[in-house]
Design a protein that fits this description.
This is PA14 domain-containing protein. By secondary structure, the protein is mostly beta strands. It contains one helix and 48 strands. Strands 1, 2, 4, 6, 7, 9 and 12 form a seven-stranded antiparallel beta sheet that branches. It has a seven-stranded antiparallel beta sheet with strand order 40-41-44-43-42-45-48, with no helix packed on it.
């Protein structure tokens, strides 16, 4: 069975609902369910979950006895069999269920407040006279799982939390129409996307196992007003080694495989690749985690990222089996020569063009990364992930991220960033996430030549965790889905997917931007704040700051976390901007701002009665044609502006300019 433990660091009286997507502090394989101490890895104030399957040999009524300290709950196939919640010593509780032969999903939720810990599961199957511990021979769980853990405090959902405000969104942004693009039976684990001049979409599929290799498919009929019945697919390449990038250049498709760059050629004109030409190779040691992420092209060079080798469990392999991994590289298209652009990366899953035509990369939490982050790539930069032997840039000073992406709060496994070119968020960047799911939006500003900014939740409601996004020729955001065992995939979603989000002209209420100013921030909204919202405005904002301390350990907690006092909150004359002044704002901190309620724009009608400090999300959707959803016409504008934002400010109190909005300096 799989045991996962979450360190809550607060008193508990009953089982709570854990905030979705959090990485556990402990994740391990256990032979049976009979634990009373060190097995949990945490002393007090934690919640654990036990998941797996039970194989039933004989049909009939099965009795179960669950002994726990403190509360617990047993569910089989989603039905509660034993509810033993609340504070108590290690006492038993019993329940029975009628089961058919075969495998059944089994789950135990358990919490410990203080004192001793215990979870023991016994059963009395048909024909048995006494309870015994459920034996290992009938228990199973997922195999081949990378058991990733992360330190730090985990959180339960609170009474003031609502989708998009304290917990992840659940629906589609009302400013977009969601369209499914997969014909019946087509289930791609999308690992790369690019466009042909004729409007066809080229996708690569992952093929992440010994029994399944990567492929390339060409899709027609995906742009414009469409649905799955109008989409056609053609497989044009196969046998690829986990391709994670694809690019169309000068009439040919190129893919980045784990060990090299491959050109796809159709020499006999039948539309299928029959010649796979190796353009370049790069260091590759055979580790499962040595990916070649993304593929950009500009002025005769391809650009992509190489991830490092890791062990099962997430620790960086020491020593690395191949040199110079954890880098952004460029490849000469004509000669295949490989050169190194930047280093100190771990799992740089996403690469894309951003402001000024520069390269931006997302890197995933792990060793030397207490949280995921968005990076601005420049020649010779080092981004703090050390390894043995040293990489080509390890001796260089550390370049700070553009954005820290607080783990499991707004990101977990972020992928390629894309810069929007139209609409209210033109110029801003969006990126998907394999495990947290959906899309997040980043507003960036340049201060003294370096980027910083804010990140906002943007949308959920997609069919799978997002592995790749692409801006299509029709202006839609195309999303490719993926998922695998363990916690690499969005819980409850498919392990494959292909959809698009098309702007529909709805002016949803949202935070448009968050800018650093001397002593605080300026928040800009897409619509004016209501009269009710601006009353006693300063008292309604909630602000926290913290920093991260990278270490060789996997992940890391928030350090020096503080609640900041809002000394003033001044709305502009049109009530679309609010200037926040904060006491105690420090350099080099991540700052989380929670916007106030009620949060209806003025003068439109407000739906419901949202509470101060929470957010009402009106993102319900209904089908309008096969494969398509859109917001209900009668729904009020969604209050997406109350999404918590997470800007990085490096020296918010240091003025370097003149006028009312002097920008901050970078701290060392």
């Amino acid at each position: 069975m799989t045991l996962r433990v979450y360190d809550l660091q607060t008193e508990l009286t009953r089982l709570c609902t854990l905030k979705a997507g959090q990485t556990p502090n402990v994740d391990k394989l256990m032979p049976t369910i009979n634990w009373s101490g060190n097995e949990f890895g945490i002393g007090d104030f934690f919640q654990s979950e036990v998941t797996g399957n039970i194989n039933i040999a004989t049909a009939g009524t099965h009795a179960f006895r669950l002994t726990s300290d403190d509360g617990s709950r047993l569910r089989i196939d989603g039905t509660t069999v034993v509810n033993h919640d609340g504070l108590h010593s290690p006492t038993p509780a019993e329940g029975s269920v009628n089961l058919t032969p075969g495998y059944h999903a089994l789950r135990i939720d358990h919490f410990d407040n203080a004192g001793g810990q215990q979870v023991t599961l016994e059963w009395r199957p048909p024909g048995a006279s006494a309870f015994t511990v459920v034996p290992n021979s009938v228990l199973s769980t997922d195999a081949g799982v990378v058991r990733v853990t992360a330190p730090g405090r985990k959180e339960c959902e609170g009474g003031a939390d609502s989708p998009g405000d304290g917990i992840p969104l659940t629906g589609v942004h009302p400013g977009y129409t969601l369209t499914n693009l997969r014909p019946n039976g087509f289930e791609p684990q999308v690992s790369a996307m690019d466009w042909l001049p004729d409007g066809r979409l080229a996708i690569a599929t992952w093929g992440g196992s010994d029994n399944e290799l990567g492929e390339v498919h060409l899709l027609s009929g995906v742009t414009g007003n469409t649905d799955p019945s109008r989409v056609t697919t053609q497989r044009i390449a196969s046998g690829l080694k986990e391709p994670m990038g694809i690019k169309y250049v000068d009439g040919k498709l190129y893919v980045s495989e784990k060990d090299g760059l491959t050109e796809l050629n159709d020499t006999n004109g039948d539309g299928v690749t029959d010649n796979y030409r190796t353009v370049a190779t790069w260091p590759f040691g055979g580790n499962f985690h040595e990916f070649a992420f993304g593929l950009l092209y500009k002025d005769g060079f391809f650009y992509l990222n190489l991830s490092v080798s890791i062990n099962y469990g997430g620790a960086t392999t020491d020593p690395q089996p191949a040199p110079n991994r954890g880098t952004t590289i460029k490849v000469n298209k004509a000669t295949g020569a490989v050169s190194y652009v930047a280093g100190g990366l771990r799992t740089p899953h996403g690469i894309g063009w951003g402001p000024d035509g520069d390269i931006f990369v997302t890197d995933n939490q792990g060793g030397w990364l207490p949280s995921s982050k968005l990076l601005h790539i420049k020649q010779d930069r080092f981004f703090n992930h050390y390894m043995n032997p040293d990489g080509p840039f390890d001796s260089r000073p550390v370049t700070q991220p553009v954005l820290w992406l607080p783990q499991n709060e707004i990101a977990n496994s972020p992928v390629n960033p894309v810069q929007l070119t139209a609409g209210p968020f033109a110029g801003q960047m969006v990126f998907g996430d394999v495990t947290y799911g959906g899309l997040q939006r980043a507003y960036l500003e340049k201060v003294n030549g370096e980027y910083q900014g804010a990140v906002f939740r943007m949308t959920q409601g997609l069919e799978a965790g997002v592995s790749r996004i692409s801006l299509g020729p029709d202006g839609a955001i195309y999303t490719g889905g993926i998922g695998a065992g363990g916690n690499w995939g969005q819980p409850g979603k498919l392990s494959h997917g292909l959809q698009k989000l098309t702007p529909n002209g709805t002016n949803a209420f949202d935070i448009l931007a968050m800018r650093a100013i001397d002593g605080g921030f300026e928040l800009e909204y897409t619509q004016p704040l209501s009269t009710a919202t601006v009353q006693d405005l300063a008292a309604k904002y909630q602000v926290q700051q913290w920093r991260y301390v990278p270490t060789a350990d996997y992940g890391g907690p928030k350090v020096d976390q503080q609640t900041l006092s809002v000394t003033s909150a001044t709305p502009s004359a049109d009530r679309r901007k609010v200037t926040l002044k904060l006491a105690g704002l420090q350099a080099g901190r991540v700052v989380h701002v929670r916007s106030p309620r009620p949060f209806a724009p003025s003068p439109v009608r407000r739906c419901g009665a949202p509470r101060p400090g929470t957010r009402s999300t009106r993102s319900s959707a209904r089908p309008v044609r096969p494969g398509t959803t859109r917001p209900r016409p009668r729904a009020c504008p969604a209050a997406r502006g109350s999404t918590p934002t997470t800007p990085v400010t490096r020296a918010p109190g240091s003025s370097t300019g003149t006028g009312p909005r002097a920008p901050p300096r970078r701290s060392p």
